[in-house]
Prior knowledge:
The structure holds two protein chains of two kinds. By secondary structure, chain A is mainly α. Chain A contains one helix and no strands. Chain A has one helix spanning 14-49. Chain A starts with 13 loop residues before the first helix and ends with a helix. Chain B has one domain (41-471). Helix content of chain B is 68%, strand content 3%. Chain B has a three-stranded antiparallel sheet, with no helix packed on it. In chain B, a hairpin with a 2-residue loop joins β2 (238-241) and β3. The longest helix of chain B is centred in the C-terminal third of the chain and has 32 residues, at 306-337. In chain B, 44% of the residues are buried. Chains A and B meet through α1 of A and α2, α3, α14 and α20 of B.
Amino acid sequence: MTLPLAHAGHWYHVLLYLLPILLIGAGLWWSNRRELRREREAEQAPKQTEP
Amino acid sequence: MPRLLRIGLPVALAALAVPASATAHGVGQRADLPIPLWLFAWAAAFVLVASFVALSVLWPKPVLADARTRFLGRAPLVLEVLAGALGIFAFAVIVYAGLEGSQTATANIAPTAIFVLVWVGIPFASVLFGDVFAVLSPWRAIGRGVGWAAARVGGGLPAPIRYPDRLGRWPAAAMILAFAWIELVWSGREAPSSLAIAALIYAAVMLVGMSCFGAEKWCRNADGFGVAFSLFALLAPLDWKDRRCRLRAPLVGALQMPQVAGSAAVVCVLIGSTSFDGFSQGNVWTGASGLAQQLSDLFAALGFATGTAVEAAYTVGLLLVVGVIGGLYWLAVVGMNRSGAGKPPTTELARSFAHTLIPIALAYVVAHYFSLFVFQGQATIFLISDPLGDGSDIFGTSQSAINYSILSANLIWYTQVAALVIGHVAALVLAHDRALETWADPRVAIRSQYWMLLVMVAFTCMGLWFLSAAAS
Protein backbone atom coordinates (compact mmCIF):
# COMPACT_ATOMS: atom_id res chain seq x y z
CA MET A 1 0.00 0.00 0.00
CA THR A 2 1.52 3.32 -1.07
CA LEU A 3 0.83 6.62 0.61
CA PRO A 4 -1.02 9.10 -1.67
CA LEU A 5 1.86 11.59 -1.72
CA ALA A 6 2.69 11.39 -5.39
CA HIS A 7 0.17 13.93 -6.58
CA ALA A 8 -0.54 16.36 -3.79
CA GLY A 9 -2.86 18.38 -6.02
CA HIS A 10 -5.52 15.73 -5.56
CA TRP A 11 -5.69 16.03 -1.80
CA TYR A 12 -4.03 19.25 -0.62
CA HIS A 13 -7.40 21.03 -0.65
CA VAL A 14 -8.23 18.99 2.46
CA LEU A 15 -5.84 21.32 4.29
CA LEU A 16 -8.15 24.23 3.47
CA TYR A 17 -10.92 22.46 5.40
CA LEU A 18 -8.52 21.54 8.21
CA LEU A 19 -7.12 25.02 8.73
CA PRO A 20 -10.17 26.59 10.49
CA ILE A 21 -10.21 23.68 12.93
CA LEU A 22 -6.53 24.17 13.73
CA LEU A 23 -6.89 27.94 14.06
CA ILE A 24 -9.93 27.71 16.34
CA GLY A 25 -8.26 24.92 18.34
CA ALA A 26 -5.19 27.07 18.87
CA GLY A 27 -7.35 30.04 19.84
CA LEU A 28 -9.35 28.02 22.36
CA TRP A 29 -6.20 26.47 23.82
CA TRP A 30 -4.67 29.94 24.29
CA SER A 31 -7.90 31.32 25.75
CA ASN A 32 -8.20 28.37 28.14
CA ARG A 33 -4.62 28.82 29.36
CA ARG A 34 -5.13 32.53 29.89
CA GLU A 35 -8.31 32.00 31.89
CA LEU A 36 -6.75 29.33 34.08
CA ARG A 37 -3.74 31.59 34.75
CA ARG A 38 -6.02 34.47 35.71
CA GLU A 39 -7.98 32.21 38.06
CA ARG A 40 -4.76 31.00 39.70
CA GLU A 41 -3.57 34.58 40.13
CA ALA A 42 -6.92 35.59 41.58
CA GLU A 43 -6.72 32.71 44.09
CA GLN A 44 -3.16 33.57 45.08
CA ALA A 45 -3.75 37.32 45.43
CA PRO A 46 -5.72 37.21 48.75
CA LYS A 47 -3.15 34.83 50.25
CA GLN A 48 -0.32 37.26 49.49
CA THR A 49 -2.14 40.14 51.20
CA GLU A 50 -2.69 38.17 54.43
CA PRO A 51 -0.41 39.29 57.34
CA MET B 1 -6.67 51.57 7.03
CA PRO B 2 -7.18 49.58 10.25
CA ARG B 3 -4.46 47.02 10.96
CA LEU B 4 -6.88 44.07 10.74
CA LEU B 5 -8.05 45.15 7.30
CA ARG B 6 -4.47 45.82 6.14
CA ILE B 7 -3.52 42.25 6.97
CA GLY B 8 -6.87 40.62 6.26
CA LEU B 9 -7.53 41.98 2.79
CA PRO B 10 -4.39 40.60 1.09
CA VAL B 11 -4.89 37.28 2.90
CA ALA B 12 -8.51 37.08 1.70
CA LEU B 13 -7.52 37.93 -1.87
CA ALA B 14 -4.72 35.38 -1.80
CA ALA B 15 -7.14 32.80 -0.41
CA LEU B 16 -9.59 33.44 -3.23
CA ALA B 17 -6.79 32.82 -5.71
CA VAL B 18 -6.02 29.39 -4.24
CA PRO B 19 -8.97 27.50 -5.73
CA ALA B 20 -7.77 28.16 -9.26
CA SER B 21 -5.26 25.39 -8.82
CA ALA B 22 -7.82 23.20 -7.11
CA THR B 23 -10.21 23.68 -10.00
CA ALA B 24 -7.48 22.59 -12.36
CA HIS B 25 -7.67 19.18 -10.71
CA GLY B 26 -11.45 19.24 -10.76
CA VAL B 27 -11.54 19.38 -6.99
CA GLY B 28 -14.23 20.99 -4.88
CA GLN B 29 -15.49 23.72 -7.18
CA ARG B 30 -18.80 24.36 -8.88
CA ALA B 31 -18.66 26.71 -11.83
CA ASP B 32 -21.70 28.78 -10.83
CA LEU B 33 -20.96 29.44 -7.15
CA PRO B 34 -19.61 32.89 -6.33
CA ILE B 35 -16.95 31.63 -3.89
CA PRO B 36 -14.90 28.42 -3.64
CA LEU B 37 -16.50 25.56 -1.74
CA TRP B 38 -13.90 25.49 1.02
CA LEU B 39 -14.70 29.10 1.93
CA PHE B 40 -18.13 27.85 3.03
CA ALA B 41 -16.31 25.79 5.67
CA TRP B 42 -14.52 28.91 6.89
CA ALA B 43 -17.78 30.85 6.96
CA ALA B 44 -19.52 28.01 8.82
CA ALA B 45 -16.68 27.87 11.36
CA PHE B 46 -17.02 31.62 11.87
CA VAL B 47 -20.79 31.28 12.42
CA LEU B 48 -20.17 28.59 15.05
CA VAL B 49 -17.60 30.69 16.91
CA ALA B 50 -19.89 33.72 16.78
CA SER B 51 -22.79 31.60 18.07
CA PHE B 52 -20.61 30.28 20.88
CA VAL B 53 -19.63 33.81 21.93
CA ALA B 54 -23.25 34.96 21.76
CA LEU B 55 -24.39 32.01 23.88
CA SER B 56 -21.66 32.72 26.46
CA VAL B 57 -22.83 36.32 26.81
CA LEU B 58 -26.60 36.11 26.30
CA TRP B 59 -27.49 32.70 27.82
CA PRO B 60 -26.30 32.81 31.46
CA LYS B 61 -28.50 30.05 32.93
CA PRO B 62 -30.22 26.87 31.73
CA VAL B 63 -33.68 27.50 30.31
CA LEU B 64 -34.60 24.57 28.07
CA ALA B 65 -35.56 22.20 30.91
CA ASP B 66 -38.17 24.69 32.18
CA ALA B 67 -39.70 25.44 28.78
CA ARG B 68 -43.47 25.12 28.78
CA THR B 69 -45.57 22.98 26.47
CA ARG B 70 -49.16 23.47 25.34
CA PHE B 71 -51.77 20.72 25.14
CA LEU B 72 -53.25 20.49 21.64
CA GLY B 73 -55.48 17.45 21.67
CA ARG B 74 -55.79 13.68 21.83
CA ALA B 75 -55.75 11.25 18.93
CA PRO B 76 -58.33 8.45 18.92
CA LEU B 77 -57.15 4.86 19.51
CA VAL B 78 -58.56 3.78 16.17
CA LEU B 79 -56.02 6.00 14.40
CA GLU B 80 -53.15 4.15 16.07
CA VAL B 81 -54.67 0.78 15.14
CA LEU B 82 -55.14 1.89 11.52
CA ALA B 83 -51.57 3.22 11.33
CA GLY B 84 -50.25 -0.10 12.65
CA ALA B 85 -52.32 -2.00 10.08
CA LEU B 86 -51.01 0.32 7.34
CA GLY B 87 -47.43 -0.38 8.48
CA ILE B 88 -47.98 -4.15 8.34
CA PHE B 89 -49.63 -3.87 4.91
CA ALA B 90 -46.79 -1.68 3.53
CA PHE B 91 -44.18 -4.08 4.91
CA ALA B 92 -45.96 -7.03 3.29
CA VAL B 93 -46.15 -5.21 -0.08
CA ILE B 94 -42.43 -4.30 0.03
CA VAL B 95 -41.37 -7.86 0.88
CA TYR B 96 -43.72 -9.41 -1.70
CA ALA B 97 -42.57 -6.98 -4.41
CA GLY B 98 -38.94 -7.68 -3.53
CA LEU B 99 -39.38 -11.44 -3.72
CA GLU B 100 -41.83 -11.75 -6.61
CA GLY B 101 -41.27 -8.59 -8.66
CA SER B 102 -38.71 -7.49 -11.22
CA GLN B 103 -35.13 -7.77 -10.01
CA THR B 104 -34.21 -4.45 -11.63
CA ALA B 105 -33.76 -2.09 -8.69
CA THR B 106 -35.34 0.94 -10.39
CA ALA B 107 -38.38 -1.02 -11.60
CA ASN B 108 -39.22 -2.56 -8.21
CA ILE B 109 -40.74 -0.57 -5.35
CA ALA B 110 -38.75 -2.37 -2.61
CA PRO B 111 -35.37 -0.54 -2.90
CA THR B 112 -36.99 2.90 -3.23
CA ALA B 113 -39.38 2.18 -0.35
CA ILE B 114 -36.60 1.00 1.97
CA PHE B 115 -33.75 3.40 1.12
CA VAL B 116 -35.76 6.52 0.26
CA LEU B 117 -39.26 6.47 1.77
CA VAL B 118 -38.38 4.74 5.04
CA TRP B 119 -34.73 5.63 5.69
CA VAL B 120 -34.98 9.26 4.51
CA GLY B 121 -38.70 10.04 4.37
CA ILE B 122 -39.58 8.93 7.89
CA PRO B 123 -36.87 11.10 9.54
CA PHE B 124 -38.30 14.11 7.67
CA ALA B 125 -41.85 13.19 8.72
CA SER B 126 -40.67 12.60 12.31
CA VAL B 127 -39.10 16.04 12.54
CA LEU B 128 -42.35 17.62 11.38
CA PHE B 129 -45.03 15.51 13.07
CA GLY B 130 -43.35 13.52 15.86
CA ASP B 131 -42.60 9.83 16.17
CA VAL B 132 -44.66 8.53 13.24
CA PHE B 133 -42.69 5.28 13.06
CA ALA B 134 -43.81 4.32 16.57
CA VAL B 135 -47.34 3.91 15.20
CA LEU B 136 -46.38 2.67 11.72
CA SER B 137 -43.78 0.10 12.86
CA PRO B 138 -45.05 -3.28 11.62
CA TRP B 139 -43.26 -5.35 14.28
CA ARG B 140 -44.38 -3.07 17.09
CA ALA B 141 -47.95 -3.21 15.77
CA ILE B 142 -47.79 -7.03 15.64
CA GLY B 143 -46.27 -7.19 19.14
CA ARG B 144 -48.89 -4.89 20.61
CA GLY B 145 -51.66 -6.70 18.73
CA VAL B 146 -50.52 -10.08 20.04
CA GLY B 147 -50.28 -8.67 23.57
CA TRP B 148 -53.80 -7.23 23.31
CA ALA B 149 -55.23 -10.46 21.88
CA ALA B 150 -53.50 -12.61 24.52
CA ALA B 151 -54.87 -10.41 27.29
CA ARG B 152 -58.40 -10.84 25.88
CA VAL B 153 -58.22 -14.54 25.22
CA GLY B 154 -55.88 -16.24 27.68
CA GLY B 155 -55.16 -13.84 30.53
CA GLY B 156 -52.04 -12.26 29.00
CA LEU B 157 -48.58 -13.29 27.91
CA PRO B 158 -45.90 -14.66 30.27
CA ALA B 159 -43.78 -12.00 31.95
CA PRO B 160 -40.88 -10.92 29.70
CA ILE B 161 -37.23 -11.49 30.59
CA ARG B 162 -35.61 -8.48 32.25
CA TYR B 163 -33.75 -6.43 29.64
CA PRO B 164 -30.11 -5.98 30.75
CA ASP B 165 -29.48 -2.32 31.60
CA ARG B 166 -25.87 -2.50 30.50
CA LEU B 167 -27.02 -3.39 26.96
CA GLY B 168 -28.96 -0.13 26.74
CA ARG B 169 -29.22 1.02 23.14
CA TRP B 170 -26.13 -0.81 21.91
CA PRO B 171 -28.28 -3.33 19.98
CA ALA B 172 -29.94 -0.41 18.13
CA ALA B 173 -26.52 1.04 17.30
CA ALA B 174 -25.49 -2.38 15.93
CA MET B 175 -28.71 -2.62 13.88
CA ILE B 176 -28.19 0.83 12.35
CA LEU B 177 -24.59 -0.06 11.53
CA ALA B 178 -25.78 -3.30 9.91
CA PHE B 179 -28.34 -1.37 7.84
CA ALA B 180 -25.68 1.17 6.83
CA TRP B 181 -23.48 -1.74 5.75
CA ILE B 182 -26.31 -3.09 3.60
CA GLU B 183 -26.95 0.37 2.12
CA LEU B 184 -23.36 1.40 1.47
CA VAL B 185 -21.23 -1.73 1.28
CA TRP B 186 -23.17 -4.86 0.41
CA SER B 187 -23.06 -5.79 -3.27
CA GLY B 188 -26.49 -7.42 -2.97
CA ARG B 189 -28.26 -4.17 -2.09
CA GLU B 190 -29.32 -3.64 -5.70
CA ALA B 191 -31.25 -6.91 -5.80
CA PRO B 192 -34.83 -6.42 -4.50
CA SER B 193 -35.07 -10.09 -3.44
CA SER B 194 -31.94 -9.76 -1.25
CA LEU B 195 -33.39 -6.65 0.35
CA ALA B 196 -36.70 -8.41 0.98
CA ILE B 197 -34.93 -11.32 2.68
CA ALA B 198 -32.90 -8.87 4.79
CA ALA B 199 -36.17 -7.14 5.77
CA LEU B 200 -37.71 -10.47 6.76
CA ILE B 201 -34.66 -11.40 8.86
CA TYR B 202 -34.81 -8.00 10.58
CA ALA B 203 -38.53 -8.42 11.29
CA ALA B 204 -37.89 -11.91 12.69
CA VAL B 205 -35.16 -10.59 15.01
CA MET B 206 -37.53 -7.86 16.18
CA LEU B 207 -40.39 -10.30 16.83
CA VAL B 208 -38.16 -12.75 18.73
CA GLY B 209 -36.64 -9.89 20.75
CA MET B 210 -40.06 -8.49 21.60
CA SER B 211 -41.36 -11.89 22.67
CA CYS B 212 -38.37 -12.30 25.00
CA PHE B 213 -38.02 -8.81 26.46
CA GLY B 214 -41.41 -7.20 25.84
CA ALA B 215 -42.53 -5.10 22.87
CA GLU B 216 -41.95 -1.66 24.34
CA LYS B 217 -38.62 -2.38 26.01
CA TRP B 218 -37.21 -4.07 22.89
CA CYS B 219 -38.47 -1.43 20.45
CA ARG B 220 -37.10 1.39 22.62
CA ASN B 221 -33.61 -0.14 22.81
CA ALA B 222 -32.95 -2.62 20.02
CA ASP B 223 -35.03 -1.59 17.01
CA GLY B 224 -32.47 0.41 15.03
CA PHE B 225 -35.10 2.10 12.89
CA GLY B 226 -37.42 2.79 15.82
CA VAL B 227 -34.64 4.27 17.96
CA ALA B 228 -33.17 6.37 15.14
CA PHE B 229 -36.54 7.79 14.10
CA SER B 230 -37.57 8.43 17.71
CA LEU B 231 -34.43 10.55 18.13
CA PHE B 232 -35.32 12.69 15.11
CA ALA B 233 -38.86 12.99 16.48
CA LEU B 234 -37.44 14.62 19.62
CA LEU B 235 -36.76 17.67 17.47
CA ALA B 236 -40.39 17.90 16.33
CA PRO B 237 -42.63 20.70 17.57
CA LEU B 238 -45.27 18.08 18.42
CA ASP B 239 -44.73 15.90 21.49
CA TRP B 240 -46.87 12.74 21.58
CA LYS B 241 -47.38 10.73 24.77
CA ASP B 242 -50.20 8.20 25.15
CA ARG B 243 -51.88 9.70 22.07
CA ARG B 244 -51.87 13.13 23.75
CA CYS B 245 -50.30 15.83 21.63
CA ARG B 246 -48.51 18.84 23.08
CA LEU B 247 -46.79 21.75 21.33
CA ARG B 248 -43.26 22.45 22.50
CA ALA B 249 -40.48 24.94 21.79
CA PRO B 250 -37.68 24.06 19.35
CA LEU B 251 -34.92 21.80 20.73
CA VAL B 252 -36.72 21.22 24.03
CA GLY B 253 -37.64 17.67 23.08
CA ALA B 254 -33.98 16.67 22.69
CA LEU B 255 -33.64 16.85 26.49
CA GLN B 256 -35.92 13.82 26.72
CA MET B 257 -33.35 11.54 25.10
CA PRO B 258 -32.82 8.63 27.52
CA GLN B 259 -29.37 8.70 29.10
CA VAL B 260 -28.71 4.99 28.80
CA ALA B 261 -25.77 2.91 27.64
CA GLY B 262 -25.22 3.15 23.90
CA SER B 263 -27.30 6.30 23.43
CA ALA B 264 -24.27 8.26 22.18
CA ALA B 265 -23.22 5.29 20.04
CA VAL B 266 -26.56 5.36 18.19
CA VAL B 267 -26.13 8.99 17.16
CA CYS B 268 -22.44 8.52 16.32
CA VAL B 269 -23.32 5.58 14.05
CA LEU B 270 -26.03 7.67 12.38
CA ILE B 271 -23.62 10.55 11.74
CA GLY B 272 -20.73 8.28 10.83
CA SER B 273 -22.65 6.16 8.33
CA THR B 274 -24.07 9.24 6.59
CA SER B 275 -20.60 10.78 6.55
CA PHE B 276 -19.15 7.67 4.97
CA ASP B 277 -21.83 7.86 2.29
CA GLY B 278 -20.45 11.29 1.36
CA PHE B 279 -16.81 10.37 1.84
CA SER B 280 -17.12 7.25 -0.31
CA GLN B 281 -18.19 9.39 -3.27
CA GLY B 282 -15.13 11.65 -3.12
CA ASN B 283 -11.86 11.46 -4.97
CA VAL B 284 -9.82 10.57 -1.88
CA TRP B 285 -11.83 7.35 -1.61
CA THR B 286 -12.82 6.52 -5.18
CA GLY B 287 -9.90 7.96 -7.15
CA ALA B 288 -7.70 5.77 -9.36
CA SER B 289 -5.17 5.53 -6.52
CA GLY B 290 -7.76 6.31 -3.84
CA LEU B 291 -8.09 4.61 -0.48
CA ALA B 292 -10.80 2.22 -1.72
CA GLN B 293 -8.58 0.93 -4.50
CA GLN B 294 -5.57 0.57 -2.23
CA LEU B 295 -7.54 -1.23 0.47
CA SER B 296 -9.18 -3.50 -2.14
CA ASP B 297 -5.73 -4.35 -3.52
CA LEU B 298 -4.56 -5.11 0.00
CA PHE B 299 -7.46 -7.50 0.64
CA ALA B 300 -7.06 -9.05 -2.81
CA ALA B 301 -3.38 -9.66 -2.01
CA LEU B 302 -4.51 -11.43 1.16
CA GLY B 303 -6.49 -13.87 -0.99
CA PHE B 304 -9.97 -12.32 -1.04
CA ALA B 305 -12.01 -12.59 -4.25
CA THR B 306 -12.36 -9.26 -6.10
CA GLY B 307 -15.95 -8.56 -5.02
CA THR B 308 -15.27 -9.56 -1.41
CA ALA B 309 -12.09 -7.44 -1.36
CA VAL B 310 -14.11 -4.37 -2.42
CA GLU B 311 -16.75 -5.09 0.24
CA ALA B 312 -14.01 -5.56 2.85
CA ALA B 313 -12.44 -2.23 1.83
CA TYR B 314 -15.78 -0.43 2.12
CA THR B 315 -16.46 -2.14 5.46
CA VAL B 316 -13.13 -0.85 6.79
CA GLY B 317 -13.98 2.63 5.46
CA LEU B 318 -17.41 2.61 7.09
CA LEU B 319 -16.04 1.46 10.45
CA LEU B 320 -13.20 3.97 10.21
CA VAL B 321 -15.49 6.96 9.60
CA VAL B 322 -17.91 5.86 12.35
CA GLY B 323 -14.85 5.45 14.60
CA VAL B 324 -13.62 8.95 13.73
CA ILE B 325 -17.02 10.45 14.60
CA GLY B 326 -17.17 8.49 17.87
CA GLY B 327 -13.56 9.42 18.63
CA LEU B 328 -14.21 13.13 18.09
CA TYR B 329 -17.23 13.02 20.39
CA TRP B 330 -15.22 11.16 22.99
CA LEU B 331 -12.49 13.80 22.67
CA ALA B 332 -15.07 16.50 23.40
CA VAL B 333 -16.31 14.58 26.44
CA VAL B 334 -12.81 13.95 27.82
CA GLY B 335 -12.00 17.62 27.26
CA MET B 336 -15.13 18.63 29.18
CA ASN B 337 -14.21 16.25 31.97
CA ARG B 338 -10.86 18.00 32.41
CA SER B 339 -12.28 21.48 32.20
CA GLY B 340 -12.68 22.33 35.84
CA ALA B 341 -13.88 21.56 39.33
CA GLY B 342 -16.70 19.11 40.08
CA LYS B 343 -15.94 16.81 37.16
CA PRO B 344 -18.71 14.28 36.43
CA PRO B 345 -17.40 10.88 35.24
CA THR B 346 -16.61 10.69 31.52
CA THR B 347 -19.21 7.98 30.81
CA GLU B 348 -21.88 10.04 32.53
CA LEU B 349 -20.91 13.11 30.51
CA ALA B 350 -20.97 11.09 27.27
CA ARG B 351 -24.57 10.07 27.95
CA SER B 352 -25.57 13.45 29.31
CA PHE B 353 -24.41 15.34 26.20
CA ALA B 354 -25.41 12.70 23.61
CA HIS B 355 -28.64 14.58 22.83
CA THR B 356 -26.57 17.44 21.44
CA LEU B 357 -25.66 15.20 18.49
CA ILE B 358 -29.28 14.72 17.38
CA PRO B 359 -29.51 17.98 15.38
CA ILE B 360 -26.18 17.10 13.76
CA ALA B 361 -27.47 13.66 12.76
CA LEU B 362 -30.54 15.32 11.25
CA ALA B 363 -28.37 17.92 9.51
CA TYR B 364 -26.32 15.13 7.93
CA VAL B 365 -29.47 13.34 6.76
CA VAL B 366 -30.79 16.56 5.19
CA ALA B 367 -27.44 17.48 3.67
CA HIS B 368 -26.73 14.08 2.17
CA TYR B 369 -30.17 12.79 1.31
CA PHE B 370 -32.68 15.55 0.75
CA SER B 371 -31.93 15.76 -2.99
CA LEU B 372 -32.18 11.96 -3.20
CA PHE B 373 -35.53 12.18 -1.41
CA VAL B 374 -36.82 14.90 -3.76
CA PHE B 375 -35.63 13.15 -6.93
CA GLN B 376 -36.00 9.46 -6.16
CA GLY B 377 -39.08 10.11 -4.01
CA GLN B 378 -40.87 11.05 -7.22
CA ALA B 379 -40.29 7.49 -8.41
CA THR B 380 -42.93 6.45 -5.85
CA ILE B 381 -45.59 7.97 -8.10
CA PHE B 382 -44.97 5.41 -10.86
CA LEU B 383 -43.74 2.59 -8.62
CA ILE B 384 -46.95 2.63 -6.57
CA SER B 385 -48.87 1.90 -9.78
CA ASP B 386 -46.45 -0.83 -10.77
CA PRO B 387 -44.81 -2.04 -7.53
CA LEU B 388 -43.57 -5.32 -8.99
CA GLY B 389 -42.31 -3.80 -12.23
CA ASP B 390 -44.40 -6.22 -14.26
CA GLY B 391 -46.14 -3.58 -16.40
CA SER B 392 -49.30 -3.14 -14.29
CA ASP B 393 -50.89 0.30 -13.85
CA ILE B 394 -52.98 0.15 -10.66
CA PHE B 395 -53.51 3.90 -10.15
CA GLY B 396 -52.87 5.06 -13.72
CA THR B 397 -49.54 6.75 -12.85
CA SER B 398 -47.08 4.17 -14.14
CA GLN B 399 -46.01 6.41 -17.03
CA SER B 400 -44.96 9.40 -14.87
CA ALA B 401 -41.26 10.29 -14.75
CA ILE B 402 -38.79 11.94 -12.38
CA ASN B 403 -38.39 15.69 -12.90
CA TYR B 404 -34.70 16.41 -12.28
CA SER B 405 -35.07 20.13 -12.94
CA ILE B 406 -37.03 20.57 -9.71
CA LEU B 407 -33.79 21.36 -7.81
CA SER B 408 -30.74 23.19 -9.13
CA ALA B 409 -27.19 22.22 -8.12
CA ASN B 410 -26.79 25.55 -6.35
CA LEU B 411 -30.01 25.13 -4.37
CA ILE B 412 -28.87 21.68 -3.28
CA TRP B 413 -25.49 23.04 -2.16
CA TYR B 414 -26.96 26.00 -0.25
CA THR B 415 -29.47 23.70 1.46
CA GLN B 416 -26.65 21.37 2.46
CA VAL B 417 -24.57 24.20 3.91
CA ALA B 418 -27.58 25.69 5.71
CA ALA B 419 -28.52 22.30 7.17
CA LEU B 420 -25.02 21.68 8.47
CA VAL B 421 -24.64 25.14 9.98
CA ILE B 422 -28.11 25.19 11.59
CA GLY B 423 -27.64 21.64 12.90
CA HIS B 424 -24.31 22.44 14.53
CA VAL B 425 -25.50 25.75 15.99
CA ALA B 426 -28.49 23.88 17.47
CA ALA B 427 -26.05 21.34 18.91
CA LEU B 428 -24.02 24.15 20.48
CA VAL B 429 -27.19 25.59 22.04
CA LEU B 430 -28.11 22.22 23.55
CA ALA B 431 -24.57 21.64 24.80
CA HIS B 432 -24.35 25.12 26.32
CA ASP B 433 -27.66 24.69 28.15
CA ARG B 434 -26.65 21.25 29.45
CA ALA B 435 -23.24 22.56 30.55
CA LEU B 436 -24.93 25.30 32.60
CA GLU B 437 -26.99 22.56 34.28
CA THR B 438 -23.93 20.37 34.88
CA TRP B 439 -21.52 22.97 36.28
CA ALA B 440 -22.67 25.48 38.88
CA ASP B 441 -20.05 28.04 37.87
CA PRO B 442 -20.99 29.52 34.45
CA ARG B 443 -17.31 30.27 33.71
CA VAL B 444 -16.42 26.60 34.13
CA ALA B 445 -19.49 25.61 32.09
CA ILE B 446 -18.45 27.86 29.20
CA ARG B 447 -14.83 26.72 29.38
CA SER B 448 -15.99 23.10 29.30
CA GLN B 449 -17.63 23.82 25.97
CA TYR B 450 -14.41 24.89 24.26
CA TRP B 451 -13.88 21.26 23.38
CA MET B 452 -17.44 20.87 22.17
CA LEU B 453 -17.05 23.96 19.99
CA LEU B 454 -13.86 22.57 18.49
CA VAL B 455 -15.53 19.23 17.76
CA MET B 456 -18.55 20.98 16.22
CA VAL B 457 -16.25 23.01 13.96
CA ALA B 458 -14.45 19.77 13.04
CA PHE B 459 -17.77 18.04 12.27
CA THR B 460 -18.91 21.00 10.14
CA CYS B 461 -15.69 21.30 8.15
CA MET B 462 -15.50 17.55 7.69
CA GLY B 463 -19.15 17.41 6.59
CA LEU B 464 -18.62 20.20 4.07
CA TRP B 465 -15.45 18.56 2.78
CA PHE B 466 -17.32 15.28 2.26
CA LEU B 467 -20.15 17.08 0.49
CA SER B 468 -17.81 19.11 -1.70
CA ALA B 469 -15.82 15.98 -2.56
CA ALA B 470 -19.02 14.17 -3.49
CA ALA B 471 -20.19 17.14 -5.56
CA SER B 472 -16.98 17.60 -7.52
